[in-house]
Amino acid sequence: MLELKNISKIYGGYPALTAIDLKIYPGQVHGIVGVNGSGKSTLLNILSGQRIISDTGGYRGDLVLENEPAAFADPGQAMAAGIGMVHQEFALIAGLSVSENICLSRENIYPWSERIFGRDLGCINPSANRARAVKVLGEMGVDLDPDILAGELGVGAKQFVELAREFNREGLKFLLLDEPTAVLGGQDALKLITIVKKIAARGIGVVYVSHRLEEVLDCCDRITILRNGRVVTSLENNPSGSPKTEHSQINKDKICALSHSMVGRTVNKTQRVETQRAPKDSAKRPILTLSSFSVEKPGDCLDSLDLDVFPGEILGITSLSGHGRSSMGPGIMGLYPVGGKVWFNQTPVFSFNPSQMIQKKIGMLTEDRRGQGLLLDHSLVENMTFSAIQAKAKFVKKSRLPFLRFPDTKQCLAYANSCQKLLNIDCRSVFQKAFELSGGNQQKVCIANALSMAPTLLFVNDPTRGIDVEAKESILALLIQAQKTHGMTLVVSSGEIDELKRICDRIVVLYQGRMVDVLPPDMTDADYLLACSGISKADPGSFA
Amino acid sequence: MNPKIQIPQLFIIGFLVLMIGIAIHLEIPMGWIISDALVRLVMNGVLVLSLMPMLRAGVGINFGLPIGVVAGLLGLCISVNLRLKGIMGLSGAMVFSFPIALVLGRGYAAILNRVKGREEITATFVGFSFIPLMNFFWATAPFSNPGMLWPIGGKGLRPVIGLKSYFAKALNNLWMVQVGELKIPIGLLLFFALLCLLMVLFFRTNFGRAMTAVGENAQFARLSGIDVGHVRTWAIILSTLVAALGICVYAQSYGFLELYDAPLMMAFPAASAILVGGSCGRHTRMGHVVVGTFLFQTTYLISGPIANEMMLPEVAEIFRMMITNGIILYALLYEGGKNNGSV
To answer: Would the CB atoms of A355 and B217 count as touching at under 8 Å?
Structure first.
């Protein structure tokens, strides 16, 4: 039995885990669910002895492995103690075959060579390795040619090889799986769940971390829900005999109950900010039309999206992280390769690059303020006016020579001062350097920069990321104010469903880069969570 | 100017103070030191100034300075070939080198823009591999002024061409003012001041600001509608242009035109000087250029006679090499260390 007693972990002053008590029994699959940032990954990192834990000051509390206290300073120690982990990223060697990968570092060696040269220089017996790999794959029920090179496998198959390698390990007592189905399609996911159950049946304790609730219900004997680094509840579960695609009503209810516990609130009590706009004219022509629009943003792809954005509306986009919510704006701005068709104001758009989009009055507020949104070493004035000066030749003195155009410092200063008052930016002066400001004020400077270009369509990515609560409110209010006074259309992407619900007219929910549903803002959080895990309201009983 | 004084500056200032102390002790005339220091400031200062656009645009130290130098040398050769004299000769050389630098700089930029993130090492080897190519050209170039050609055979340029009968010291001696022992080259200083002023003004224009922004945060610049590749290209061309001017000033001051392998190592003292001035990658200011060149070249200047007096003459050269390369090494280590720290 693996027991966690009162485990706490602090990252940079913020608690990631607080007083976690968990018992993981051999032969059981223990599911851990929670929304992003609830501490799932941190928990796994502690259990598998990842370096990041000791590098950031270690953790408090005790790990007890079969009645012996345990502590792992690096993954090697955890492995030696019988704890294996399958990572979200694959750790396979592309140039080696499947059987070589499975037997890596535990190869069968001709005994005579071992006697002469020792284990490290011994001569590997490929046929014995192959036989072992075939046996392991057979036990798992995976039909895979052991001689194929790992680099040539598809993602799903890679995940199975990865599992087989852990399965092949002698003395494996506990297996940690971090979102094992994140990269798998429906059928492969079902297969994986079967394998996980087989592994558990051999007396191995499995920790199964996922935010796909239906899977967790399908395979786990016990489910622990984490929220904000604390255990909310731990419940017994009787996994259905075999994983199914069709969801029974009971399962659906369970999923709802789980998602309520994950979010922590039952209904949205937060006040919706009244936008008081003229009722939307449905006959209005869309300002932006996307047709099978895809964006290849690494780690956050958007896949064939069909969507109309209407002038004057605030459209929300949400998904779990990595499911495509943050790629639409950057895609349109031309930061990543895109596919599909786009019409802006009924005219087709063929080339995507920032300067053209700015000319078309499309703007973007990036979520990576420090990396993309600001010149940290320059004054606020320069930050607020830079884009307008460069792209729109605004705030520029008239000059006949194209190479000798100087910014009009008076106009710049006037704009910066008015913005500072209007947006209520807390700074000593507008000549302060941008890096000295807090996150919320930096965001306001970014907004001022975006507004200086007078966009008609503004993409806003995670506007409140890394911003304290009070500043969040004013940022949201600012967005609405900007929308009202300038008649702008906003496309806001965020993982904070609450915030979207307060400001948006419609909210698009994505799952694995595809649109699941477009929901009105008055749906409950649980509905949103269901949609985020790929279950459409309009089409109950199925999941993507 | 950056108020923070770092280890290279401290080291070089300490060294300089020590040198001046010894110089006074050895009764080396102060007037000579100061007038020569002023000349050397401008002589090398323009070459150091040429590093600035590329540093500001985030392309890194222009270790490919020989490219610009070669453009300047070509201009100088054309001017000598036409037997232009005095200030006319010098300005002629600058004008002729201009289009050459433009073309070479464009090609150089095309190479550097393909290796974003590894510009400095690439630039070093672009410089190194360009020199042999030019050696071939120097040996076969169709110049006709016999003063430039090998005396025997009459074909191919000499490695060193004396400029005495053309425009040696043309700018050095322009408006020279003598105050007691002290000679102040007003014309030369004004020329340098003008170049510096133009550079400062350039970085205040829209385009100059875009260049600074590209250096500081290329992604932000891109989102603001700036064509990053275009801006980098112009930064590299500008650096090459100023380097061409720089060698013209250097050659007239030195009194000789050095061809063949001479430009090979030109980048290193210049890079050292700007680093001594306190330049730290993108945060390069005019103050760094002027102060750095002054400190670095004055140290060079004084160390020669002192070493001659106290030790073997060769020692001065050894010290110079140690300082030059040591400072570059320190700067690279310092930059690298910062990168590692932030991960």
So the answer is: no
In angstroms, rounded to a whole number, what is the distance separating the alpha carbons of residues A297 and A320? 15
Domains of chain A: 2-82+171-263 (3.40.50.300), 90-151 (no CATH), 270-361+456-474+487-544 (3.40.50.300), 372-453 (no CATH)
Residue B340 lies in a domain: no
Rounded Cα distance between B79 and B74, Å, is: 9
- Domain containing residue B197: 7-332
Q: Which two tokens stand for residue B8?
A: 């290279």
Residues of chain B in contact with residue A398, where contact means CB-CB under 8 angstroms, are none
Mutate to test the interface with B, among A389, A390, A395, A460 (most CBs of B within 10 A): A390
Cβ contact, residue pair A354, B222, below 8 Å: yes
Query: Which of B197, B216, B223, B227 to probe by mutation at the A interface, max A CB count within 10 Å?
Result: B223
Rounded to an integer, what distance in angstroms lies between the CA atom of residue A234 and that of residue A442?
A: 41
Distance CA A483, CA A460 (A): 12
B217:A390 CB<8 A: no
Predicted confidence pLDDT, tens digits, chain A (544 residues): 888 888 888 876 677 888 888 888 888 899 988 776 678 878 888 888 888 787 777 888 888 888 888 888 888 888 888 888 887 666 788 888 888 888 887 788 888 888 888 878 888 888 888 998 888 888 888 888 888 888 777 777 888 888 888 888 878 888 888 878 766 766 777 888 888 888 888 888 999 987 777 788 888 888 888 887 888 888 887 776 554 445 556 666 777 777 777 766 543 334 455 554 544 555 678 889 999 999 888 777 888 889 889 888 889 998 877 788 888 888 998 888 898 899 998 889 888 888 888 888 898 988 888 788 888 888 898 899 888 888 877 888 877 776 678 888 888 999 998 888 888 888 888 888 888 887 788 888 998 888 888 889 999 988 877 676 667 778 888 888 888 888 889 999 988 787 888 888 889 998 888 888 888 888 877 788 788 877 776 554 444 3
Give the nearest chain B residue to A391 (CA atoms). Answer: B225
Domain count, chain B: 1
Side chain identity at residue B120, one-letter code: E
The predicted model scores a pTM of: 0.73
Q: Do A390 and B283 touch (CB under 8 A)?
A: no
Bridge-based pairing state of the strands A489-493 and A314-318: parallel
- How many cross-chain Cβ pairs, A to B, lie less than 8 Å apart? 74
Q: In this structure, is residue B68 part of a structural domain?
A: yes
Is B342 domain-assigned?
A: no
On whether residue B2 sits in a domain, the answer given is no
CA A452 to chain centre: 31
Residue among B206, B211, B342, B343 with most chain A CBs within 10 A, to mutate: B206
Tell me the nearest-neighbour CA distance from A7 into chain B, angstroms: 27
CA distance, residue A48 to nearest chain B CA (Å):
22
